[in-house]
Design goal:
The protein is mainly α and 263 residues long. The protein folds into 2 domains: 99 residues; 142 residues, no CATH class. The chain is 68% helix and 0% strand. The protein is globular, with a radius of gyration of 20 Å.
């Protein structure tokens, strides 16, 4: 009989392996001439194919001391970080939802958000090939999940995309420049489809607050004033991940606030 600790360990290993694949997606997806399947894993600097022992999630990075075994070029810290994050997310999902439809669905959702976070940080784009299918999958997930209804999913899709579209349109009309990309609009529509409209107030508030704080810091350090641009997708994605794991606590404190019982 498999113990709970063994189950969580297996979940971590599986998550780390998936995280290794997500690194390939993050690296190759923004490049239109590259495939996420072929060729096999190789050093992005010298293109040398990796041996099996150089492709073990997290451990290979530590064993190689962060350098390619062929050209000795440095390996980005992103690789073990994504693998570790996906391992931790997988363990957290199994611990929270056990083995259920919710676990499988939010595993796919979380993997998509991790890819979006790192691609948006690096390239300041959110690929439609993730967000648009993600919207459809979110609605389909609501049909079989007990965590969100299909009505809530559809409203979340429409409201999520509509809110950011309205903000972006208003900003453009007032400032005569684009203040938010279409990728962010589609991302919030995807988040609304997966989590329902009830999640949107928290996600918009948290992402806007954290984004504003980081934006102010970036403006002061870069000295570009209003021309400073930071990707908003990571803040939306992180807020969505927080909601997945802490929605019960969020609603608890929200209820206390509305009923005047806030300590």
């Amino acid at each position: 009989m498999i113990t709970e600790s063994s189950l969580l360990l297996l979940s971590a290993l599986f998550g780390a392996v998936v995280g290794s694949f997500l690194n390939v997606v993050i690296l190759r997806l923004p490049e239109p001439d590259q495939s996420i399947v072929f060729p096999a894993s190789h050093c992005p600097r010298c293109n040398a194919p990796l041996h099996w022992y150089e492709n073990i999630p997290i451990l290979s990075y530590l064993f190689l001391r962060g350098r390619c075994g062929h050209c000795r070029g440095s390996i980005s810290l992103q690789y073990p970080l994504v693998e570790l994050l996906m391992a931790l997310v997988t363990v957290a999902l199994v611990h929270r939802f056990q083995f259920s439809v919710a676990t499988v669905g939010y595993f796919v959702f979380s993997a998509a958000l991790l890819v979006i976070i790192f691609i948006d940080i690096r390239h300041q784009i959110i690929p439609d090939v993730i967000s648009l299918p993600g919207i459809v999958l979110g609605v389909l997930f609501s049909l079989v999940s007990n965590t969100v209804t299909w009505q809530s999913s559809l409203i979340g899709l429409l409201v999520g995309g509509g809110v950011l579209y309205a903000i972006a349109l208003l900003y453009t009309l007032l400032r005569k420049i684009d203040g938010m990309g279409g990728g962010d609009i589609k991302l919030l529509a995807m988040i609304g489809a997966w989590l329902g409209w009830q999640a949107l107030p928290f996600i918009i508030f948290m992402s806007s607050t954290t984004g504003s704080i980081i934006g102010i810091i970036a403006m002061r350090s870069q000295k570009k004033g209003g021309q400073t641009r930071i990707p908003f997708g990571p803040f939306l994605s992180l807020a969505a991940l927080v909601y997945v794991f802490f929605s019960d606590n969020i609603f608890h404190y929200y209820t206390l606030y509305l009923t005047g019982q806030w300590p």
